[in-house]
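Help needed: design a sequence for this.
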């Protein structure tokens, strides 16, 4: 059986060059300075990652808005 890899990240700050790329709903779900785990990705409009925040909410982030968290 293959072991799955979980990637822990911390959100940094909004990439100001991408402000207009997110819907209003997506903006509401994003949290800055929050820890979480990558649970998915999308590449339909450029690569972005779906993050499960520690409080159970989810948000999408550009790779430039995330940093790896060493546990």
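Sure. Designed sequence:
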């Amino acid at each position: 059986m293959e072991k799955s890899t979980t990637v822990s990240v911390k959100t940094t700050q909004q990439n100001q060059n991408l402000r207009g790329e997110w819907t209003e709903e997506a903006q509401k779900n994003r949290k800055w300075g929050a820890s979480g785990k990558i649970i998915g990705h999308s590449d339909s409009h450029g690569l972005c990652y779906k993050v499960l925040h520690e409080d159970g909410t989810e948000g999408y982030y550009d790779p430039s808005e995330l940093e790896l968290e060493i546990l």
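The mean pLDDT is 89.
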